[in-house]
Amino acid sequence: AAVKSIHEAGGQATGVRVDSTKLNELDALYAQIKEEQGRLDVLFANAGGGSMLPFGDITEEHFDDTFSRNVKGVLFTVQKALPLLARGASVILTGSTAGSAGTAAFSVYSASKAAVRSFARNWILDLKDRQIRVNTISPGATRTPGLLDLAGDDAAQRQGLADYLAAQIPMGRLGEPNEIASAALFLASDDASFV
Question: What is the mean pLDDT of residues 94-123?
Answer without folding.
Answer: 95
